[in-house]
Amino acid sequence: MSISSPASRIQANLQELFKGNSVSGNPYIKFQLTSEITALLSMEQVQETLIVEAGQITPLPSMPESVIGMMNSRDRVFCVFDLAQLLTLPSQLTTPQQYQVIVLQTNPLTPIQVGLAVSSIQGIIRLPAEQIQSSTAASTSKIASYLSGVVQSETTMIPVLEFGRIWKSLVAV
Hints:
The structure is a single chain. The chain is α+β, with helices and mostly antiparallel strands. The protein has a single domain, classed as CATH 2.40.50.180. The chain is about 15% helix and about 40% strand. The strands form 2 sheets. A 5-stranded mixed beta sheet has the order 8-1-2-10-9. A 5-stranded mixed beta sheet has the order 3-6-7-5-4. A hairpin with a 5-residue loop joins strand 1 and strand 2. The longest helix is centred in the first third of the chain and has 12 residues. The mean pLDDT is about 85.
């Protein structure tokens, strides 16, 4: 039985870190959309994620319920939406102290930032394109028109949302 010192464990971890074992697949941000739904969104247009105090978001009067308000981050002002309400799902964001916000940019030529508040951000995962299945199985759900596909997890199907479709619904509001 060998006992490794903290220094040797760190050295072994550093060697693993710099081996260059890159995970294949495209990156997706994983988040809790509602108490029952975990979802994914491509990292392609994600600029950053933030934990924002409720007081940092300025409410806007006479706006749809999905509009939380306006905020400033990195000298950019943008609107923050409750993603669950925007997708006509039950929201868990009623009077929170903090919001977890995914900041996305529409396109590089004429960039417009949008904040999407979610219940909790769970991290980033990589998925090969072939692991994402057609969303026809979820075509009856409320969010079917926002899906680019679904991923089978151990117990459920995880929806993969497409920001372009969400953006089109925002422009229509």
